[in-house]
Amino acid sequence: MKKPFYHYITIGIVLLYLLIPLLGTFQYSFATSWHKTILPEGFTIKWYVELFGDLRFLKSLGRSLVMSLGATILTLVIMVPAIFSIVLYAPKLEKMIQSLIVMTYAMPGIILAVGLIRAYSTSGISMVLITIGAYFVGILPYMYQGTRNSLRNINAESLMEAAEILGASRYTAFQKVIVPNIISGILVSSLLSFSILFGEFVLINLLVGGHFETVQIYLFQKLSQSGHIASAIVVCYFLLISILSAIMIKMTRKKKEPV
Amino acid sequence: MSFLTIENIKKSFDNETVLHSLNLSIKEGEFITLLGPSGCGKSTLLRTIAGLIHQDEGKIHIDGKDVTEVKPKDRQVGMVFQSYALFPNMTVQENIEFGLKMKKLDKETVKQNAAKIVELVELTGKEKSYPRELSGGQQQRVALARSLVTRPKVLLLDEPLSALDAQIRKNLQKQLRSIQQELNMTTILVTHDQEEAMAVSDYVYIMNKGQIAQSGTPHEIYTRPVNEFVARFIGNYNVLTREEVSNLFKGEKNFKNKMYAIRPEAFSEDRILDGYEISGKIQKTSMLGNITRFELEANHVSFIADRLHKIDEDAQKQETKTLYLNRKDVIPLS
Amino acid sequence: MILKRMNGMFLISIIPFFILVLLFLFVPLFFMLYSSFQGDGGSGFTFKQYLEIFQNTYYHQAFKNSIIISFFSSLIAIGLAVFATYSITLFSKKIQDRILVFANLTANFAGIPLAFAFIVILGNSGLFTLLFKHFGWDLLNSFNLYSWSGLVLIYIYFQLPLAVMLIYPVYQGIQAQWKESAALLGASPLQFWLRIGGPIILPSIAGTFSILFANAMGAYASAFALTGSTYNLVTIRIGALTTGDIFARPELGSAIATLLGVTLVVALLINEWLTRRIRRDLS
C-alpha cells in the first residue's frame, strides 16, 4: 500500500522534535569547547572521566539507587499480596482501589509534597523515609496496573481454586502457584517504577533538599557550573532508562511468545 | 444474459496466490453462495467484487458496465460484514439512513425509504436504539437493512450469520432468502457452513485453494460431488479408494477411477435389483436425532451408513447387517 | 458479605497496604487542607489565605500562566499526536512498535534532564541559537527559552510522547470494516472521519487532553530547573512558599496547592460531562 507523503511528514516532525534535544545534549557531552562555533571544536571523553572520578557523583548515584530500589521493593512486597487478596476475595473493594489509583495518578507531586511537609516536617521522622513513603504512593498506579493485568492473564481465580482443591493452603497456593506465574509481569512494572523514581526530582528536592544529594539533585547543582558535565549526566541517565526499557521490552516479548 | 461477470481474476498477497484466474457469472436476481473452508479465497473474491481489494489481473462487469477500475463507493454494491460493522455512534435509524444521505437524497425520500426497509427487516420500534443495545440477530438485521436501503445492484454477504446462535441463524436464513426474493436482489453469500449454503442458494460455488472446485445447484452439488475435496467437504460422504471399493463389493473389477464417494443414506436394507450387496459387521451405532448412524466393517473396509431412526431399534454391536446399494450411488471422483 | 470471606491471611495482606496509603496519601492531604485554613504561623481558623489568593494579582497571574502554558502545550501536543499517530498506524507492525518504544522512552525523559537538553540547544549559547546567529538571524530577539514560549516548547516535549501513547490505542479501536462499510455506502474518507471516525474518537481525544492538561498543570521540575523560582507558575509558587527560607508561608502554599487540586478535579469533571454530551450512545 502506498502512503501519501504527508504521513511521513507528521511522523518526521514528532520524531525530530523528540530527537533533536537528545542529540544536541549527546554532542555537547563529548565536545571539548563549544561557545562561538557551529560545530564543537573537538571531541573528548574527559567530561565522563571527570564525572565518574567525582566521589560526590558516585555517592549521589548510590543514594538514587538505594532510594528507587528501596521504594520499588517496598511497594512490591506490600502491594502485590494486597492487590491479590482484594481482586480475588474482596472484589467490592476493587472499585475503591481503582478510584484511589486514579487519584494518585492525577495528583501532582507538588501537592503531595506540600501535604507531607505540613504533616511530618516537625515530627522528627527522617524526611528521607517520608520520601520513600511518598514514592510508594507515586508508583502505585504502575504497580497496580501490572499486578492486575498479570493476575487477569493467568486467570488467578481458577488457578487458586485448582490449587486449593488439590489440597494447598491459600498461602502455599499464592506462594507456589500465583507468584511464579505473575513474577515476570510484575518485574516489568517494577522496572518501569524504578526508572520513574530514578528521574524523580520534585519530592526529593522539596522534602529533603540539597543536603541529601541524589543524581537528579546533583545534576541540578551542576547545571549552573558545568554544562558539559551536566550533559554527560543527562546522557548517562538516558542510557540507563534505555537499558531498562530494552529489558522491559524483552521481558514482555518473551511472555507473549506462544508456549 | 449474466448480470455480474468475473473474468480471470487473479490475486496474490506476498507471493502467495489467493485467487487463480477465477471466472464466475451470475444472473440477475440470483442468490449464489461461495462455499469453502477458511483460507480458500472466498472472502478475498467477495472483497474484490466490492472493490475493497484490487485484483492483480482480470475484469469485473456489473449490469453490463466494466467496474474493474471503479472505486467501492461508486460500484453500487452493498455489503454485510461478519462483525456487522454498524456505526456505534449512530442509532438504528441513522445507520440505515447513512447511505441515502451520502446520495444526497431529499429528506422526505430518505425517511420513506428507511421506514420501508425497517418494516421489511422487522425492526419497527427499534429506530432510536443504538447498536450496542440490540441483540446479535437484531444488529444483523440492521446491517442488512443498511445495505439494502440504497438498492444496490449486488448484495454481498460475508459470513453474515456465523456469529449467531443456531436457532437465530436458521430463522435469519429464511428471512434473508425471502427478503432477497421479494426485492429480486442479486446476492452473493460467503460461508463455510454447507447447510446454510444448501438452504438459501440457487447456485453454489465450492472453492478450494483459490479455485472453484465445483459449481451447481445445491441438489447437484450434494448428490454428484465431482472430486474428493467436494465429497469430503459436503456432508459425511464415505470417500473410498479404488481398492477399498472393489474389496467392499467383493470381486467387482470395473472401477477405473482412483477415488469413489458413497452417501451414507444411500445404503438400504431393502433388496435393490441389480445393485450391490454388502454384509457388514456393526462396530458402533450413534444417534443423530432423526437418523441412526452405523459404523460398519466389511471385508476390512470401514464405512458409515445412515438410516432413519426407528423406535424399536434392534441393531447390536458385532451383529451382521446386509445392505444394498444402487450402482449409480457409487460416485466416481476425479 | 465481604466479612464472611475474610480470614487472617486476608487482613495481614491488606492492612499494611492501607496503612501506607493512609499515612502517605490521606494524612498529608488532610494536613494540607487543614493548614490552608490556618493563619500565618499555623494559628486559628481563617479564610485569610484564600482571600489573599483571590485578591492578589500576583497569584492570579500564576494561575493564568500555568493554565495558558498547560492549555497550549496540551493542545499543540494533541494536535500533532492526532495526525502523527494516525500516520503511524498506517505503517507495518514492526515500525509501529519501534516508534512506540521510542515514544515510551522519551516519555520518561522529563524534568531536570529535559530542561537541560533544551538549554543545550536553545539556551543563550545553545546550538540552534548559535546556528541561527551564524546565518544572520538572532533567535534571541524573537524567542527566549526562559519565558513562556520556551516553557511551552519544553512542555510539548514531555506531552507529545504521552499523547501518542494514549491516542494509539484509540485508533486501534476504529474497525477497518467501519471504513469499508462507509465507503460502500458512498462516503468519502473525509465524510467517514467527519460523521463516524471523528465522533467515535472524540471522547477519547478529549480524555487524553484533560490528562495532558492535568499533567502540565502539576509539572514543576522543568520550569524550576530552567527559571529557578522566578517564573510565575502555580507549582513554582507552591514550592517557593512551602520551602523557601526567607519567604516561606506554608499555609498560603497549602491554600494554593488545594486550589490547584480543585482546578484539576474541575478539569476532569468538565471533560467527563463533555464526553457524555458528545457521545449520547455511551450514556
From TrEMBL, chain A:
Superkingdom of source: Bacteria
Transmembrane stretches, start-end: 7-30, 65-88, 100-119, 125-144, 182-208, 228-249
Family annotation (Gene3D superfamilies): MetI-like (1.10.3720.10)
One example of a Gene Ontology biological process annotation: transmembrane transport
Domain ABC transmembrane type-1: 61-248
InterPro entries: MetI-like (IPR000515), MetI-like_sf (IPR035906)
Pfam families, A to Z: BPD_transp_1
Organism: Neobacillus vireti LMG 21834
Protein name as it appears in the record: ABC transporter permease
Key words of the record: Cell inner membrane, Cell membrane, Membrane, Transmembrane, Transmembrane helix, Transport
CDD domains noted in UniProt: TM_PBP2 (cd06261)
Matching PROSITE patterns: ABC_TM1
Keyword Calcium carried by entry: no
GO cellular component, one term: plasma membrane
Cellular compartments annotated: Cell inner membrane; Cell membrane
Topology relative to the membrane: Multi-pass membrane protein
Protein family (similarity comment): Belongs to the binding-protein-dependent transport system permease family.
UniProtKB/TrEMBL annotation, chain B:
Signal sequence region: none
ABC transporter domain sequence ranges: 4-234
Catalyzed reaction equations: a quaternary ammonium(out) + ATP + H2O = a quaternary ammonium(in) + ADP + phosphate + H(+)
PROSITE patterns in the record: ABC_TRANSPORTER_1 (PS00211), ABC_TRANSPORTER_2 (PS50893)
Enzyme Commission number(s) from the entry: 7.6.2.9
GO molecular-function terms, A-Z: ABC-type quaternary ammonium compound transporting activity; ATP binding; ATP hydrolysis activity
UniProt subunit comment: The complex is composed of two ATP-binding proteins (OpuCA), two transmembrane proteins (OpuCB and OpuCD) and a solute-binding protein (OpuCC).
Protein name: Carnitine transport ATP-binding protein OpuCA
Taxonomic lineage of the native organism: Bacteria, Bacillati, Bacillota, Bacilli, Bacillales
